[in-house]
Amino acid sequence: MSKVGRSLFVVLVIVVGALLLYPTIRWYCFVSQSIKDLAAGSNENIRDWARGQASRETLVLREMLQTDRNQSVPEDLRYLTGFAEDARKDKGMDSPESWDVYSLLSSFASEDELFMAIESYYRDEIMDAKRLSGNVLQLGLDLRGGMSVVLEADLDSFESQHGYRPSGDELSSLIADDIEILTSRIDQFGVTEPDIRQQGADQILIEVPGEVDPERVDSFLMSRGSLAFHLVDSELTARVNRDYMGNRAAAFRPDGSIIVPDYIPADRELLGYYTEDEYGIDVLREFVVIDSEVALDGTHLESVRMERNPQNNQPVVNFRLDSEGGELFHALTSRHVGEQLSVVMDGKVKSVAVINSAISQDVQLTGSFTEEEARSLAVALRTSSLPIDLSVVSQQGVGASLGTDAVSIALKAILFGLLLIVCFMIIYYGPAGFIADFALLMNFYMMIAVLSALHFTLTLSSVAGLVLTLGMAIDANVIIYERMKEELRAGKSPYDTVRLGFGRAFWTIMDSNVTTIIAAVVLSVLGSSTVKGFANTLAVGIVCSLFTSLFVSHLLFDFFVKEESFKGVSLSWRRSGV
Amino acid sequence: MKKPFDSLRYRYIAIIASSVFIAAGAVMFFAKGFATGIDFGSGYSEEVRIAPLGFSCTYAGDKTMTLSVEDGALTLTMRDETGVEEVMFNPADYPLSGDVAEAIGMYGVNVSVKDPLLPSANLIAGFGLPGRLSSSPLRINFATDTVDITIEDVRNALLSIGGASVQTVGKSSDAGFQIRVNAEDGETQADVEARVNGALGDAFGAENIVVMRSDFVGPKFSASLFRSSVIGVLLALALILIYVAFRFRFAYAVSSILALVHDVLAMLSFILIFRLEVSSTTIAAVLTIIGYSLNNTIVIFDRVRENIRTEKTLSVEDIISMSVRQSMTRTVITSLTTLFAIVPLAFLGSGDIQLFAINLTWGLIAGAYSSVFLAPAFLSFFHRLMPINVEKEKKEEEYSLV
Q1: How far is Cα A1 from Cα A11, in angstroms, rounded to an integer?
Q2: Which of A115, A415, A500, A525 has the greatest number of C-beta atoms within 10 Å?
Q3: Which residue of chain B is at minimal alpha-carbon distance from A410?
Q4: Average pLDDT over residues A140-161
Q5: Which of residues 304-323 of B touch A (CB under 8 A)?
Q6: Are residues B147 and B169 in the same domain?
Q7: pTM
Q8: Full set of structural domains in chain A with CATH
Q9: The complex's ipTM?
Q10: Which tens digit of pLDDT belongs to each residue from A184-220?
């Protein structure tokens, strides 16, 4: 490759590195704390918040319209002009030169449309931030803290399933099995380096780095929620939907909870029927009024599978009930043919189906759900694969396990160490030391970029491992320089020295680094999360160091040492340069 | 003239020195075992709030008086033959601790007020609540809205206990802390609790300590996780052996792996002899040394391989000595630069980080030592066992020279 081509390649690497670093830099430098806090909430919190914002701003706009319809749109609502333009374009209307409240509101067909526009604006802002937060270099438990969750074995549900209460050794082995399953589930989220241990006789303590996010707890507990079948009151359901669906602003309080109309009697409950939209956030499909009485409890479920209907290839959820549940279900369904039955989980309607005929043990849920929805429904229905169910006792933020000043001292020490290396290289190798230091900095840059692209969790030991890798990276340059010095002593020309120095050191560096990579890869595949995190840092660091020492510093030497001239780059401050 | 340095001459001294050191480590292992931290062993964990005492209550009357917390408000439940009466002291009506104390005093409870000016909304519902009033005082603490106690204060208070890990819980003004310590053999939960709370009480006043929750906790690393890590290390060693055997020759592979095993054993012995605590970072340190010290050895072996091809007249022993000598500057400098990175941490760091750095520093020294004194000695021994096939070597040279 020509020098130009090689330079371009290095520039390309730097640019790609910058792109990989971008989300991390954006998150830590350009996202405000209030957005970060909101993004740490559950999707449900975000929805409630966005709804509250929407209903507040809809009201503000309505009032403004009444006081003076021609006043200009205030600064904080200007974002709506974009939505208004789109709405007008759909209707083939031109947009006005300047927006006043009337022209803005008249762009929307109904107040409901306006409400949804505002809601989507706020939802997208927070959901974007939430997605971003999952894509950045995270700090680990020891550096920043995270969330601590205490789970407790649900002995009652175990008793109702198995007919006895476990105790002593059996309980602790059940808990140990649970811990193993949880560990593997959390490990699947990538290298988050959680801290999981048994607490007391029947509790599990989990600490995960990152913000307190209930969804993440749910995601590794998968399903812990209550599940039940309820009959649907179709008459009231139709009435509520008539009242509310056209005017969602009236259906919710600013805190996002549903306002229950007076005509719902005490033995009925008004719930939202939610399906997941493309953001993974629950979207209200409609309102459902159910019979408060549980028609069939979810504990009767034996097995659940997501399958496809062979006729139309639609995803369906098949489940099987135990014999007692089968009898109950048969009695229920034979009495209520033609009526609707809803699956309610954690206070939300997940599915509504019409009872076509009396069913006993084998039940098929069909509906207009996507494969993704069917699968998550199936996962939710499968009460739990944990040997003993767990319930969340407490969930709270915990601080860094190392004190803040301990962290800052350690970081200073690390910086000091790096500075020592940089100075040493310049003092010992003179001008060539600058090249090695440049390669070192570039290696550091690349490592951080790759680690942040892998959404890595940085703990103090991985920071120390990173520094150590930098210490090892400089070794490659030392090997090359020592080799060059030997060639120089053998009387070679500067150009030959560079060529032979890099050429002969190539396999030395390769062999010594490949062995380390082997160790790193094996540990990354087999190790537990702490080990894995460390191994990944090491592997990334070594690959980067191979590139910076063998490619980048070689290129730099080639810039300074030309074949035709006898000038070289000095390998020390003594007058005996390359 | 000074004789050139020949590491092979010190091989027996080196082997004896290493063996003695590792044997000492083994003795410590069987005598005392590892000083395992709470990551590996079980220990005691408690969550405390350190908050000023508002008042304490005693009761000597005939009724059954219970204090509990409902919806953030202190609630007094009085029971006697005639029935149950419940009074709630809402923060809205009784904004300060003194107001609540006064109100409770109206019901025949003896209240001794310590600090009447604490916001009653910050009531801490810890251990002891709900509690029945008796002649022994029931303490009611209230958090302040300011940061009075930092995690460092708590850490310093627990210095005497050693190996305690402290984390903040909740907001910093809550002064809530999660404390974990190792339980000594045979200690009951009450023993450790007394030990921890004694130390905290000495520092912050016994009446200001509210234990929210306490329990024994199991190790972070279960045996199976630890086993999979060990299997990982062994498998990595096996693969390295294959790679080195493929790139060099089997004698080199065995020698480098033996040197590596020495480094790991030397590190473990160091940890055992100096009773350093084994934590999750210890695993990371050992792994680092496996990766690093092999690097050093391979660079020297690479030089041996090269010299064997070019210096046909010298004996293998001489070539090995010469190669060690030639790469000496490099070995020293690379170890030095790496030590530069890690030694400041060993001096300035604290807790786990310091341990990690100390382990690494020793590991780096042991690694450099083994690649200069031990690995070449092993190599010369295995070279004699598996002599070079000159013909084959020549052929290899033809296609391996780039």
Answers
A1: 15
A2: A115
A3: B349
A4: 77
A5: 306
A6: yes
A7: 0.69
A8: 33-133 (no CATH), 138-224+392-398 (3.30.70.3400), 227-383 (3.30.1360.200), 404-560 (1.20.1640.10)
A9: 0.71
A10: 666 554 446 677 778 777 888 887 776 666 666 666 6
